[in-house]
Amino acid sequence: xxxxxxRRSYAVVRPLSTEVATTVxxxxxxxxxxxxxxxxxxxxxxxxxxxxxxxxxxxxSLIYAKRSAVIAISKWKEEGRPVRKYELxxxxxxxxxxxxxxxxxxxxxxxxxxxxxQLLYGDYAVHLDLIAKVRCxxxxxxFFEDLPDKLKVQTTCTAxxxxxxxxxxxxxxxxxxxxxxECGFLNYHLPYNHMLxxxxxxxxxxxxxxxIQELKKNTSxxxxxxxxxxxxxxxxxxxxxxxxxxxxxxxxxLDPDWITFSTLTNIYIKSSLQDKANSTLQEMEKKISRKARxxxxxxxxxxxxxxNKDEVFRIWKEMKSIFRxxxxxxxxxxxxxxxxxxxxxxxxxxxxxxxxxxxxKDTRIANLILAAYINKNEMEKAxxxxxxxxxxxxxxxCTTWELLTRGYLKQKEMDKVLEVFKKTVTSVSKWDPDAKMxxxxxxxxxxxxxxxxxxxxxxxxxxxxxxxxxxxxxLLRTYVNAGKMPMIVEERMKKDNVEMDExxxxxxxxxxxxTVTEVPNExx
Length: 524
Fold this sequence. Notes:
Shape: globular
Helix content: 55-70%
Keywords: Repeat
Domain PROP1-like PPR: 308-434
Distance between the termini: 46 Å
Organism: Solanum tuberosum
Low-confidence stretches: 12-49
PPR repeats: 222-256, 362-396
Structural class: mainly alpha
Region (Disordered): 23-50
């Protein structure tokens, strides 16, 4: 919860303080009906010049990373067309927006070697950030170190700090903050917000309040600072401190945003203050706009937690009317929330709607419905749904097979459990062990005394590189319940590099007095 609140608060922070003219503007052209947009590195009119060739269009069309932005720019110049810095800045912004970091970096590197382009501090800050994204943190650090001293200013230092924060390197971030303080670079809130985000994300909450006090001595906090502080109070469920902070925020003549009211609502819900939660939700809704798309999903989620079904449907309907398309994340969120409200029929209707329009065939959304069937102990419907998933071209994931494993496990159908569990561990290059599920599987196998399934399960776990003393003890308990003596257990444990404990030795002693059972070759 805390990390989600921090990510949401931090998302509104400008990661870099730049002096680059990268704002995308829209103006209505005089005397015409078209809307002129400064996008893609050149002005184009949406009505009459929609297909006009621009440098921005060429660079944005370089979908594959192996294609070169430098070649595209050079070809543009060879055609006798001008290349303007402000256009390139806008192109870099668009490329970053679409996470096309390699091409954005190539544009920055091209600008840096042009004699007729004068770079500002912000250009170097953006360049540094892109190096960190495309290459690594150490490459970004070297870029900074190689800069002339006159360029090691507040802007570029903050960009390097942002890199350390993204890589969660507390030691380097703290060291840089100290140097920035010595240089007088901590006279604005952004570096502090970076550090606050880092401390909160790493659970070092004891450092947060002290840093906020230092910030207030040196400069004025912004709304992001207050939202980060509020996130800490939310993690502590400290209603009094949160309300006190809200008063301080208003006294500072700062306008709370939707994140502020969303976090406050979370605090009130956790404290069972439903009236206050509904009140802050109303304030939150007043703050959201088309630009803050994620706010709608947050609003729906909070209404779900308050069991406000009518509001959930109202806001979802409003959201669909505002945005032309609903993305997979939003469908996933609303379907899971409807399931939480026990509105399976509505959730299924939305799944059907998503299935009809989706081009991604995202298995995670289908898994929500599959899990709902399994949770309702409707295994036959779950299997039928799973089969339809695959017919529709939705490929099962590791989670899909894991859900089916749990479903069959609840019914104690161990042959089918073993069948789908094998698919669970082989569907990924490295299976992330679920110790609880493994214990539950062996618990049922022990009850049934099914040594064949117990042995096959051990083989599957061995292939997944997850064999330990607890698993061997469960295997031995199965043999005890079956009244059989396993063969070469000690040798197999040694081969698997598994130590025996006191229980292992006790179980081997018990089974040694039972009927001998040979281990089949395919299992041994």
